[in-house]
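Appendix B, example 12.
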Amino acid sequence: MTMPPLLAIGSAALDIKSRLTRAPLPTTDVPGQITLKPAGGTQHRENLARLGVPIVFAGILGHDPQARLLIELSRAAGLSVYPLTRTAPAADDLYRSN
């Protein structure tokens, strides 16, 4: 008997971490490394999928490169991802602008 998929509804986040190879000095460039990693609830959903739990994720995601990366990483971890579209608030929509 196969397990029915769990439906996860919510948000997705991406941690962007940077690590310098040395202490910065004034007016100099410092080489470093940037790491992008799913964060928060995204990690929980992906860990369950890696354990074999079928997960369907539906959440509001943008149309930016970070959102596309989150979708790719989630699908690679075994999630079925259904991004919900988000519209920009109208200029006079103060409630949604905050």
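The longest strand covers residues 13-20. The mean pLDDT is 84.
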